[in-house]
């Protein structure tokens, strides 16, 4: 099964790094989309079926929390798991994310293993027979 | 504000972010010993992040352009010769985002701080910002290549 994933972050380098880690995770990745804020992310979700969303919190325009809330009130999107990836580390903030339906939370900075672990947790282990993505031309150390 | 605790939070955050996310071994030097510092006429990337909450102020990160290029190339796994301005500035902006968020949560994990979107700043706006500060912290960071400086300015 190929997973379609959306990465939402206003930082272009961070989107590139997260996408790289996802590709190297061992999962069969189908479509890998990216958006620079919540509004753009909702537009992508409106036109594509996705299996997972990873989103930053602090973004201009629509931030990650507002984006999460909007997803969860939309019948066509509310079942898609959302992972918050953010520098926000306060207990109250994390509780707020989870209360509004986030499936998991990753604090920046993170290692590739943390991303992979969350993918495993939410999508299940990569299917048998899938080897790790060939990293001969990609460095897992970002 | 507990000054010692804040300096420690800054240093711990810097070590964690730069070593874990950017794979940069670093050391700290005291500002008094940093006689070289960053040369005035050296091209730099300066970024700023405003915050509010139990305390309000801003963080600044001052990075020589050559170091910013090198960090970005390593971060993205590409050659420094092929980098765009967007990639370099974007990387340093993301760096201060992580440094600020980590510092504040290490300083007080229970408090909720609101971080603004980081932005590039011209060098000449830095001094004006510091003149109204009630408290001012700076950490001088030595990398293998050269030095960078992280500053925290707390408003009156």
What is the element layout, followed by pairings?
The complex is a heterodimer of chains A (142) and B (156).
Chain A: E1 3-8, H1 12-23, E2 29-35, H2 38-47, E3 52-55, H3 64-72, E4 82-86, H4 91-99, E5 104-107, H5 112-123
Parallel strand pairs in A: 1-2, 1-3, 3-4, 4-5
Chain B: H1 3-21, E1 26-29, E2 44-52, E3 57-64, H2 65-76, H3 85-107, E4 114-115, E5 119-120, H4 124-131, E6 133-143, E7 147-155
Antiparallel strand pairs in B: 1-6, 2-3, 2-4, 2-5, 3-7, 6-7
Helix pairs in contact in B: 1-3, 2-3
What order do the SSEs of chain A take from the amino end to the carboxyl end, as H and E?
EHEHEHEHEH
- The helix tally of chain A amounts to 5
Arithmetic mean of pLDDT of chain A: 87
Class of secondary structure makeup of chain A: alpha/beta
Given the helix and strand composition of chain B, which structural class is it? Answer: alpha+beta
Query: On the 0-100 scale, what is the average pLDDT of chain B?
Result: 87
> What is the string of SSEs of chain B from the N terminus onward?
HEEEHHEEHEE
Task: Give the structure's gist in a few sentences.
The complex is a heterodimer of chains A (142) and B (156). Chain A has 142 residues and is of the alpha/beta class.
Overview of the molecule:
The complex is a heterodimer of chains A (142) and B (156). Chain A contains five helices and five strands. With 142 residues, chain A is an alpha/beta fold. A five-stranded parallel sheet of chain A has the order 2-1-3-4-5, sandwiched between helices. By secondary structure, chain B is α+β, with helices and mostly antiparallel strands. Helices cover 40% and strands 29% of the residues of chain B. Chain B contains four helices and seven strands. In chain B, α1 (3-21) crosses α3. The longest helix of chain B is centred in the middle third of the chain and has 23 residues, at 85-107. The relative contact order of chain B is 0.26. Chain A binds chain B through residues 10-14, 16-17, 20, 58-60, 86-93, 108-111, 138-139, 141-142, and chain B through 16-17, 20-21, 23, 72, 74-77, 86-87, 90-91, 93-94, 97-98, 100-102, 105-106, 109-113, 115, 117.
């Amino acid at each position: 099964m190929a997973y379609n994933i959306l990465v939402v972050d206003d930082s272009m380098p961070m989107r590139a790094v997260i996408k790289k880690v996802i590709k190297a995770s061992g999962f069969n990745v189908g479509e890998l989309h990216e958006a620079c804020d919540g509004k753009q992310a909702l537009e992508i979700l409106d036109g594509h079926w996705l299996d997972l969303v990873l989103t930053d919190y602090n973004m201009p325009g629509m931030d990650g929390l507002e984006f999460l809330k909007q997803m969860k009130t939309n019948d066509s999107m509310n079942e898609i798991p959302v992972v918050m990836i953010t520098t926000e580390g306060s207990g109250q903030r994390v509780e707020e994310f989870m209360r509004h339906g986030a499936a998991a939370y990753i604090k920046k900075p993170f290692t590739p293993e943390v991303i992979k672990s969350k993918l495993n947790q939410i999508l299940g282990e990569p299917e048998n027979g899938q080897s790790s993505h060939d990293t001969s031309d990609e460095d897992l150390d970002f | 504000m507990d000054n010692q605790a804040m300096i420690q939070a800054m240093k711990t955050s810097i070590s964690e972010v730069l070593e874990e996310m950017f794979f940069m071994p670093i050391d700290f030097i005291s500002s008094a010993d940093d006689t070289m510092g960053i040369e005035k006429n050296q091209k730099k990337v300066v970024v700023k992040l405003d915050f509010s909450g139990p305390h309000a102020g801003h963080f600044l990160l001052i990075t020589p352009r050559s170091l910013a290029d090198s960090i970005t190339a390593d971060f993205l796994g590409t050659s420094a010769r092929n980098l765009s301005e967007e990639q370099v500035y974007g990387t340093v902006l993301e760096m201060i985002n992580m440094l600020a968020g980590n510092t504040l949560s290490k300083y007080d994990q229970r408090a909720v701080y609101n971080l603004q979107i980081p932005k590039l700043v011209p060098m000449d706006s830095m001094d004006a910002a510091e003149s109204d500060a009630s408290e001012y912290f700076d950490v001088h960071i030595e990398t293998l290549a050269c030095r960078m400086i992280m500053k925290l300015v707390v408003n009156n």
